[in-house]
Design brief:
Largest sheet: 2 strands, antiparallel
Number of strands: 2
Order of helices and strands: HEEHHHHHHHHHHH
Strand content: under 5%
Number of helices: 12
Oligomer: single chain
Distance between the termini: 34 Å
Length: 289
């Protein structure tokens, strides 16, 4: 009987394992091999060793794309995570929270191209809704998408609006998983609302915060759709991200080997950041025993 259950287990796991091998492991191995090749996507491949990696590290465009991606991550993570957490706190205690969840989650299921087009209209410097609203208060709105200093902030605003519902739902689930007995014990001891938030809510929510932060950092390093749809990486490559750089090398310039090398470098950066996060998490993430 036990053997049959084991076989059925492998049977149901098989589609997932096949998908993982076909769409993750094989492309990863192919990318690693390709990063040591000179190939235009059509002709014969030739082995050139580390030349693609050296070329990327010597390329000012690569460093520009990496700086833009890091800037986006630095701006997006604290703003996106904080707003998601605040919304989750607010919705955790209101009536009709199901309706609000749907309202805030709707942008998440909207396609990235549609979201980008909508925000191009909102942020248009001449007739955009945002500048029209600023004009009501006598403020002259800037050119959000053509100003090199503001374009990344504009993309961050879009990303926060687009993804806040997803992170909010995760935080909300984390909040509802905290046992009420902790708060009842704190009430007996006369703890204030802030003390309960500081010593109960935040520590008990730390595994959720850790998960949301890790996922947000990984997705931030892979930002592409927003910059492609709204600005095409401009102006003056101010919104040119590293995934945009990988895309352009591969499908515009047909330098597949260099594109694969840039992708492997990005993979390594994300892996290092994730490992550091897991290492540091032991100091602030508390798991309920």
């Amino acid at each position: 009987m036990m053997k049959n259950k084991t076989l059925w287990g492998y049977f149901f796991l098989a589609p997932q394992l096949l998908g993982l091998v076909a769409f993750a492991l094989i492309p990863l191995v192919f990318s690693i091999v390709l990063s040591f090749m000179d190939w235009d996507g059509f002709g014969t491949k030739s082995f050139i060793g580390l030349e693609n990696f050296i070329g990327q590290f010597q390329s000012p465009v690569f460093w520009k794309s990496l700086r833009n991606t890091v800037l986006y991550t630095i701006l997006y993570i604290p703003i996106g995570v904080s707003i998601s957490l605040l919304l989750a706190f607010a919705l955790n205690k209101v009536k009709g929270k199901e309706l609000y969840r749907i309202f805030y989650f709707m942008p998440v299921v909207t396609s990235s191209v549609s979201v980008g087009v909508i925000w191009m209209w909102i942020l248009n410097g001449d007739f955009g809704i945002l500048n029209q609203l600023l004009g009501v208060f006598g403020i002259a709105g800037p050119q959000w998408l053509t100003n090199t200093s503001l374009v990344m902030i504009s993309i961050v605003m879009l990303s926060v609006w687009w993804q806040v519902g997803f992170n909010m739902i995760i935080f909300l689930a984390g909040l509802q998983g905290i046992s009420k007995s902790y708060y009842e014990a704190a009430d007996i001891d006369g703890a204030s609302g802030f003390q309960k938030f500081r010593h109960i809510t935040l520590p008990m929510l730390s595994p959720t915060t850790f998960f949301v932060t890790i996922m947000a950092i990984i997705s931030s390093f892979q930002v592409f759709d927003q910059a492609y749809v709204m600005t095409m990486g401009g102006p003056a490559k101010s919104s040119y991200t590293i995934v945009y750089h990988i895309y352009e090398l591969a499908f515009v310039n047909f330098r597949m080997g260099e594109s694969a090398a840039a992708a492997i470098i990005l993979f390594t950066i994300i892996m290092i950041f994730t490992l550091i996060q897991f290492k540091v998490s032991k100091r602030w993430v508390h798991y309920e025993e």
